[in-house]
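Model it.
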Amino acid sequence: MTLRAAAAMRPLVILLFLVISTRLTGDERPLTNEDVAQIVQLGLGDQVVMAKIKQAHQVNFRLDTEALGSLKKAGVSAAVIQAMLERTSRPPSPTPPAAPGPTLDPSLGGMLAEKISVRLVTSEGEHLLRLSKGQMSTTGFGWAFTYMDYPGLSARVRTTDPGLHLLVRADGQIEGGRYFLAKLDRDEDDVCRSLKIGSVKQRFSFKSKKAMQPDKDWVVPYDVSEAEPGIWRIQPRRRLEAGEYGFYIDPQLLTMYFHFDTQSGGIFDFGVDGK
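Modeled.
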């Protein structure tokens, strides 16, 4: 196609985009995965798509592992998917910030907010962490490995202070072998952060208390002490390197108290950025 022909078609492309934008937002219906994929196919660039995501009156994105795979197959870039993930955790930019609310996604159950909450304490201040729900996956053949996958390549809460600690409010004592400070691995292909759990054999050994525990090489040792009644201080035994982390709760504990299914591992996630 010649430059002249391309220039002639540009107004038509922009008009088509405006028509679709009006259809998507004119009746204030939520922006969906399918809408984002349709806008991407117009070829206007990631910046335009991300601006549309930010400006939408409301969104209804599906961002589980299967949906992320479908978005990738549709040509949606990692940057756009990250914008979708960020939009689901905050209101659109023209809306004033909402007052602080519960730490949890309502779908995770209000009971959990009464049982446990986690604060990240750094030299930059305190941050209330949100619980992210994982989805189990396996890789390899034979003695396959099991992972908990969490949507997005980076946590919303971040710090540059590697000497941080956590304050955990829990209904009962923080037990060894049930709560872990874990390091997550960024998976660029699946646009998620992964935590290695173990082999398939371990996965189905539900009688074992170690069935859903993280691999020992993916865990950061910590000391626990009671800062005040019902508040536990989680102090890593070493300064954390730059990367993605989280306070992981054994899914069996979630199943026992909060009716999670055994293939969902909850984690209060955060990130450490290098200076």
